Amino acid sequence: MAMGPSDGTPGLGGTKGLFSPVSVDRISEVIVEQVRLLIREGKLVPGDRLPSERSLCEQFGVSRVTVREALRVLEASGLVEIRVGARGGAFVIQPSSERVGKGLAELMTLASMTAGDVTEARMVFELGILPLVVERATEEDIADLRALVEQGLSALESGSYTMAMSAAFHVRVASAAHNPAIEMLVQTFHGPMLMSLQQAHVAAPLMGPRGAHEHFELVEAIEQRDLERARGIMTRHLQRTADRLANYSDPRLENPGGEE
User: Fold this and answer.
1) What pTM, to 2 d.p., does this model score?
2) Does the keyword Transport apply (predicted)?
């Protein structure tokens, strides 16, 4: 999109006709949907600055209060960033997988989905990508995974091992598939995965050491390109989590502290 010479906004004529006046209930939601559509169509891209509040009010035919409400929703959705100062404004940004993951985790605490459901999905996903991980993992991937394993084992000895360490290991395993779509999916799923592991820890708080040692074994299997061994380790690893959750009296997702 062409930008203005000094303020970073689309050039002359660039925004004219992009936005349509609205006259329905909950007007701010309609504004949000228009901006989302423009982003999907590539008419607004990361780095673009939206027109000023006054200009948006004129183009949409709404009050400044309504425009500000829409901008707050867009910011909370991770689609724009509000910057202050002389060069401030509302800027389109690249959506963050981490932000989406946090949003999913919050949504799941309010839904009927359980930690067991999340673990079942993990079994399908993490076992499904193992062939790619075993085939494509590089020396750098193996080194990073070994470093995470060592950090986890050291934390076990000091009593500081956390579930976040386990989740980080699983995310790094997925990135070794070297598929951007897979990496985006696992990053998005990070929040729900973390919460389900925390719930599993509440059900069986003494199981952390076994999981950390299985991480070590999994890295060895990946390095040796031994798919069957890697699949067996991962299956036992995830099945144990599923069994813990199945025997837990309150399987709904919560947000306790803990470890795998």
Assistant:
1) 0.62
2) no
- With a CB cutoff of 8 Å and minimum separation 6, the contacts of 78 are 93, 95, 96, 99, 100
Q: Is the pLDDT of residue 210 over 90?
A: no
Q: At how many degrees (to 10) do helices 97-110 and 190-203 cross?
A: 50
Residue type (1 letter), 232: G
pLDDT at position 170 over 90: yes
Bridge partners, 83 (sequence order): 89
Residue for token pair 């059900």? 203
- Provide the b/e sequence for 17-43 (b: ≥16 CB within 10 Å): ebbeebeeeebbebbbebbeebbeeee
Are the beta carbons of 168 and 214 closer than 8 angstroms? no
The mean predicted confidence, pLDDT, of the chain is: 82
Amino acid at residue number 38: L
63-108 pLDDT, tens digit per residue, is 999 999 999 999 988 889 999 888 889 999 987 656 665 665 566 5
